[in-house]
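#structure-requests
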Amino acid sequence: MNLMKNIRGFSSVSIKSEFFPAISKIKFEGHKSSDPLSFRYYDPNQIIRGKTMKDWCRFSVAYWHTFRGTGLDIFGSPTLERTWDNIGGDVEAARDRVYAAFEFFKKLGVEYYCFHDTDVAPEGKNLRESQKNFNIIADELEKLQKKTGIKLLWGTANMFSHPRFMNGASTNPDFDVFAYSAAKVNKNK
């Protein structure tokens, strides 16, 4: 079941609270706040040495830790259950995850995020399919960036998770892996 598609179509870009409905935008409330979902010391508008805290602390959300990490321990199984990861591993699920991510970014008040290519889009059965998947998700990311003003701090190629990279990427003695790696870097520039 495609959760987001059942809630709303993807023809228009909108941020709704499908993934975090009980959480509003996180606000500064000071160190005496009893709200566990508030900033106690980070006040984005406070001036320190001529700049706001927002200018000094330019936070970014790392997509792979926040939206792809499973809490896996090498001696056990994944420990994190996340709504957006229980909807499948295809392009539609990746698109749903983008909406969860941008809802999270907006509520947290961050202006930047970062990712590896295979964090945001599923790897295909070959390079061509992987790049096609990435193009689809990159278009969705770009739409939401334009709508929200949230910017990509950096995006890069993941060349360590797949077994093909067991001997490296650009240093791999297998010319096919080297070529695959070069194509991934070229796609992510």
